[in-house]
Amino acid sequence: MRRRGRVVLGFTALALLGAALLLRPMRPDEPPAVAAGTSAAGDPSPAADLPARPAEPPAVAPAPPAPAAARPSPDREYQPQPDSLAEWLQEREPLTARWASETGDPSWNRQATSQIAAILINAQLSPNALRDVDCRQTICRVKLHSDSKVHRDVSALIGASRKLVDQTFLVPFASDQGGWDIETFFPREGWSLEGAPIGKTTEVTQGGV
Amino acid sequence: MNKTCARSLSTMVLGLGCVLGPAGCGPETADGGGTAGATGSLPSFTVDLEKHPRREKNAFWFTRMMTHESASADNAFLNRDDGSHIHVNDLACFTIGMGGEFCAHDICTKDKVKTRIDANGFYKGRAVTGEQSKLFWGCTAYSNFIGNPGAVAMISNPDLFFENTHNFNTWPACLSNVTSSTTGLWWGDAISWLGGLGRVFNNAFPDFAQVELSQDPFAGSRLRIGSGGCDGNWTGLNALGRSFFVGNPGSGKKVTLMGVNSNNIFLIGHAGDPGTFTFTISSEGGFSSRFMTGVEHGFCALSKFSGQFRGNGEHVRVAAVDTSNGVQWKIVLSKQSGDGVAGSATCIAYDQRI
Fold it and tell me: Is the dihedral of CA B333, B96, B190, B220 positive or negative?
């Protein structure tokens, strides 16, 4: 993947202000001046494309620079967005109820445990992260644990969970022992998390012709 | 008359059975949409459903992908397999997925993925990002829809456009936790989806573009863009929204959607009804993919696009998947690196009589 050519701003207010004054007139992503109704990207049919942009206010002197906004480090503490977490917890309820209503499948349990261990090893994660596997008739629940609260470490476990099958459902929980627990549900082959048997699935691009 | 309506005077060339709009073309109000029963030209293309008699069996639909590796991906016609261009009078086509490496160029304004309708009524697409840019688009036949007598189908045009340009005036000060909103999408008697987006969508904090479907048939849906934070190099976002109406204009009936109930049983209903009518997925939690509805019951497209898109095949899209229960619309994603991607989709029901 190519890295985007970003201008790295300094971390001090002085450097930031200096960079601002230096680069402001030649910002590459500044839209070129265009007539009303014309796409800045040179779209050949402007009239049908984008409504005119509101006029920009007259140029003003740069405001005192805000404190340097550091890119979030992968070493930052992991914290899911509250809105998303609330939605995930709500969606988790029917999956938990379905899982609880089914009887266990020891054979699938063993198979899933091996699969998850292999995924963790391939991702250079500790197999000790695997805390629980409980597969039932049509849905399996896996719990992984991260002692670390660091975003990079928790995300690595989330990524490993997503590799189980095509369709997974997971929720991160702050662990009582510190760190994070990742609870993941995934369906038996031929089933969906929505609860219906789906057989082998393949993408199609048209129908009813 | 708002600017959108004024512009439509030059593009309103199709006017088949043009009638009063379902919403959205009256004088702009503070909270969006337009005035019920407003007169005047419409920023839309109108199709007489009577000229598209409903098929009794088998929905007709198709999906395609456009990538930037093809030179024709920039402002290219959406074509059938035989190469013929698709006209808005023939099929209803929408953006159903987007992806790529956003803001890969120093000139982030170059990056955009969208579908639109040109002045002659032909669909066009653009897929221009740093690498792996993808535009997924899908079409459905007007004949799939059922309306009450006199029903029409209408597609908004030009696209409703919203751009957050605050950064141009405040740079280098960061915009942190910005959530901007605007109005202009049609009311809740029409479905509204994302038509395209551009600029960054590659910040370490999740940027997003979203359509919030109105639960009120006389209040506008909302197009929102924003960022979960600021990484010091924030250069703005833009998004396009497109509205689609099927029914009898002015009837005040909420658009009928396909969704699922708490037991994940497919159901038909409206925004605000019990059940799930917005299907959300994320690489970071919740569902990684979701089945939405059968292709014979409705048509699905994106209502939210969010995350850090760095190329390498990263995208959020709607796909049609063959299952033992028939072909179903499914929202899926692909994440390779970065801090994750997410998206949502909504499905309009083919039966709009309910």
Answer: positive
Sheet architecture: strand order including A139-146: A130-135, A139-146, A180-187, A169-174, B286-287
Rounded Cα–Cα distance for residues B181 and B165 (Å): 12
**Inter-chain residue contact A1 with B58, CB threshold 8 Å:** no
d(CA B93, CA B152): 16
Interface contact A4-B106, CB threshold 8 A: yes
Of B266, B201, B276, nearest to B231 by C-alpha is B201
pLDDT lower than 50: segments of chain A: 1-71, 209
Q: What is the pTM of this model?
A: 0.79
Segment holding B270, helix H or strand E? none
CA B106 to chain CA centroid, Å, is: 27
Q: Assign B1 a pLDDT band (cuts: 50, 70, 90).
A: very low
Q: Chain A closest CA to B210's CA: distance in Å?
A: 15
Residues B172 and B215: beta-carbon distance below 8 Å: no
Q: How far apart are CA B350 and CA B241, in angstroms?
A: 21
Q: What single DSSP character describes residue B82?
A: T
CB A178 within 8 A of CB A154: no
Omega of the bond prior to B172 within 30 degrees of 0, cis?
yes
**ipTM confidence:** 0.81
Nearest-angstrom CA–CA distance, B277 and B281: 13
Question: What are the Cα distances from residue A147, in Å, to A42, A122, A130, A157, A176?
Answer: 52, 19, 12, 11, 11
Yes or no: say if B79 and B138 are a contact pair by the CB < 8 Å rule. Answer: no
Phi, psi angle pair for B170, to nearest 5°? -115, -10
How big is the A-B interface in CB pairs under 8 Å? 228
Task: Please name the residue of chain A whose CA is at the shortest distance from the CA of residue B335.
Answer: A159
Residue-wise pLDDT for B158-201, tens only, equals 555 555 443 333 333 344 445 555 556 889 999 999 988 776 66
Cβ atoms of B341 and B335 closer than 8 Å: yes
Q: CB-CB: which of B109, B264, B321 is closest to A41?
A: B109
Q: Which helix (H) or strand (E) holds B312?
A: strand B310-323
Min distance A44 CA to chain B CA atoms (Å): 8
